[in-house]
Amino acid sequence: MWQTLDEARVEALGCTRCRLSASRTQVVWLDGNPDSDLMFVGEAPGFHEDRLGKPFVGAAGKLLDGLLGTIGLDRSRCVICNVIKCRPPGNRNPEADEIATCSPYLRAQIEFIRPTVIVTLGNFATRFLLERQVSITRVRGQIFRAFGAKVIPTLHPAAALRSGGVGSPQFALIRSDFDLVQRELAKGKAPAPAAAPAAVPAVPVVPPVTPVEPFIEQGSLF
Ligand code: SF4
């Protein structure tokens, strides 16, 4: 469909494929360094992201920046994007048809950037990457193989914010998952996928590195 990441970006910036184009301020494409081995995928732009055109610039973004710092990274050494490129009105959950319509853009981002490790933040990104209706609280802290990368699900930073911030159990879980990310990045580049990324089934390749936490039911956002 597109020959380069920039071709995809240019089309996305003017995209009117779904109803979200009518209410957005601007398309939020990605932030960071597309030459990175590490990609973070969130859910959708929020109020601040929609105004500034960058993903994760609000309080959750500050928490993400802090978590990056704990493993010696910053935004210049990873790439950050969302499943949906335009803000749903009132920060509602994305609809299934909106995700499906927008999906070629995220697929293109993954295909052209070819990250070694993809960290999914929350339920929506995790379900998209694993192509299964999983619960983030069940699969976080594990490594899956999908889209030619190691996929490591973790909680959305907003979940930690809603639970008390850096002192919350949710933050401790995310922090633990970031340590796993750091270890996997140190192992180097994953082999190229043998088949088209979308056809690769998502299967766990490494057992959980932390004990399974008590089930914590959360809102569908996370
Ligand atoms: S959400 Fe995606 S498909 Fe919908 S208008 Fe924005 S860029 Fe296009």
Task: Provide a descriptive summary of the structure in words.
This protein is an alpha/beta fold and 222 residues long. Helices cover 36% and strands 14% of the residues. It has one domain (5-192): Uracil-DNA Glycosylase, subunit E. It is built from eight helices and seven strands, in the order αββααβαβααββααβ. Strands 1-3-2-4-6-5-7 form a seven-stranded mixed sheet, with helices on both faces. Strand 5 and strand 6 form a beta hairpin. The protein is globular and about 40 Å long. It starts with a helix and ends in a 16-residue tail after the last strand. It binds iron/sulfur cluster. The site of iron/sulfur cluster (SF4) has 14 residues, from helix 4.
Question: TL;DR?
Answer:
The protein has a single domain, classed as Uracil-DNA glycosylase-like domain (Uracil-DNA Glycosylase, subunit E, 3-Layer(aba) Sandwich). 36% of the residues lie in helices and 14% in strands.
